[in-house]
Amino acid sequence: MKRYINKLLLLFLVVSAASCSNDFLEQQPSDRPTEDVLFNSVEGAKIHLNGLYSLQNYYYGEGTRGILIPAVMGDDALVISSNNYTRYVNEYRYNYTVESSRAYNLYYYSYRTISNANLFLSQIDGIEGNEAEKNDLKAQALSLRAFAYFSLVRWFGETAYTDDPNGRGVPINTTVNSLDGYNIPRSTVGEVYEQIVSDLTLAEQLSQPADYKGYIDASAVAAIQARVYLTMGDWQNASKYAKKAYAGFSLIDEQTYLSGFNSTNSEVIWEQRFVDNDTNIFLSIPSFTYTSGNITYGDNNGDGVVDGNDVNAGTPGAEFVFGYNSLRVTEYFIELFEDTDFRKKMFPVNLDPDGNRIGDVSPDKTYAQYGAADGYLTTKYKSVSSLGTGDFPRIRASEMYLIEAEAEANLGNTAAAQSALLTIKQRADNTVASVTLTGQDLLDEIYLERRKELFFEGHRFFDIKRLDQDLDRTPSDKDHWSDFTNNDISNDPNIIPRNSVSKRFCLPIPQDEINANEALTDEDQNEVYK
After folding, report:
1. E-only strand ranges, 133-285
2. How far does the signal peptide extend, from start to end residue (predicted)?
3. How many CB atoms lie within 10 A of CB 248?
């Protein structure tokens, strides 16, 4: 199927999906060629499936925003306060309304993926062809639909499953509907997860292993299952599928880890693959975070801030700004890493013109900034060549070890949890000899390791929500330039209380959806947005 990736539909579904329709769930999908082209052969079905992946990878949906927004809505990342192009600022400040385009797009593109998956699943069984091949295609469509619902229920579900599975979730549609409108109420969070688990269970039965990681194969199905079961607090299944997912994968070494998370390696279970005509350019992940490495400069104007006038043109730092370069991490987060942890090298340091590291003495700062005095640069993502090129991981084996560790700790299997956690800690820091923590201390260490290992990979906000934790930016308030007083949701301007208290960790159902869906009224809006 890889040879079809460059076919027209790869972009056709996405371009058409960007039209100004307000109908999310209702119709036979119009963003596609005619059915007699797509479903007269297995080869045509593959083209349709490629379109589903293109929708899934689209930067206004899960492709970029779905990965970066969970970081800026957390505590370890921020948007710079100036020259930020207004991108991700409202997400960072929790300034959502029912008219917010960012919430709309996450909702819209997930349901376009679901709508097209429904069409695919309604047709695939009737196509003549090899049954094993058809089953594998079906497994991928089921998995993409499940992943889209998983995204929707975590973003728009008013409660976390582990807090209240009877809380309000999102509408479920698994059929191809007519053009006459639709009437589909919100399901509960638990009902949405039942649909997700059902799709993934069938996908597990039908999927096949594959070397190409741009598509969902048997290992990727297991990885999605592990992530879903972790979010549900089903520890037995979370551990089971995490181990199934990472079987046969090996963790990458330091050199590969620090190369920029932009190409397939032995750790990648499922990734976003881009080809030349489907590159996200300025809206890509590395556009928002990219820098080339340590920066050599002389502080020409004495303000302690690296800017274009300060960079030494004779060093690689002269070309380190690439794309928007507007998302940063806090100094508090950087200092969570031990100096012996090679992952700390993902945060460039300032060097004097002789190449010596500048100490943390005011006004100079140890870690590199650029153009704004808030937050620090990271080299986690880099483009391969031109901006936006690269294959960016969606699920890595390291996440599976951390899922296993958390699940086993919650099951009371301390030794197994310690072993899985040690695998990740020791890979990053060869001075770590053992993990001896137990009980809540062990769980807290696992949560901390998730923050460090998986930052900017689409997890932090969702971890805060599922673990029912406060969002507390107090330790990093010297880096965070905006507090939450504008939302009048906390006595402490740096803290949003737990979701079970505030119900704040969800996005608003788009008003366009409420207007279009006959089953919904304004009373069906998430409580904090009424």
Report:
1. 168-171, 186-188, 268-272
2. 1-17
3. 11
DSSP 329-365: E-HHHHTTS-TT-GGGGGS-BEE-TTSPBPPS-TTS-
Burial class (CB in 10 A: 0-12, 13-18, 19+), 40: middle
pLDDT at 266: 97
Domain holding 490, by residue range, is 35-259+457-529
Report the sign of the C-alpha dihedral through residues 477, 482, 483, 485, in that order: positive
Ranking 151-160, 189-198, 294-303 by mean pLDDT, the lowest is 294-303
Q: How many residues does the chain have?
A: 530
What mean pLDDT comes out for the span 397-405?
99
Asked if 44 and 123 touch (Cβ cutoff 8 Å), the reply is no
pLDDT band at 230 (very low <50, low <70, confident <90, very high): very high
Strands (E), 29-177: 77-79, 168-171
Helix (H) or strand (E) holding 221: helix 218-232
What's the mean pLDDT in 287-298?
66
Give CA angle at 310 (305, 316), nearest 5°.
110
- Domain membership flag for residue 145: yes
Structurally, how many domains does the chain consist of? 1
R_g (Cα) of the chain, nearest Å: 23
Does residue 313 have a pLDDT over 50? no
| Per-residue H/E/C for 312-327 | CCCCHHHHCCCCCCCE
DSSP 510: P
495 bridge partner residues:
472
Q: Is residue 174 a contact partner of residue 198, using CB atoms and an 8 Å limit?
A: no
Q: What angle do CA 228, 234, 238 make, to 5 degrees?
A: 60
- CA distance between the termini of the chain: 46
Burial class (CB in 10 A: 0-12, 13-18, 19+), 211: exposed
**Contact of 508 with 158, CB cutoff 8 Å:** no
Q: Is 330 among the domain residues?
A: no
Residue 253 included in any domain: yes
Under DSSP, the state recorded for 33 is: -
What pTM value is reported for the model? 0.91
186 strand-pairing partners: 171
Which pLDDT band holds residue 1 (cuts at 50, 70, 90)?
very low
Torsion sign over Cα 132, 136, 137, 143: positive
DSSP state of 458: S
CA–CA separation, 368 and 306 (whole Å): 7
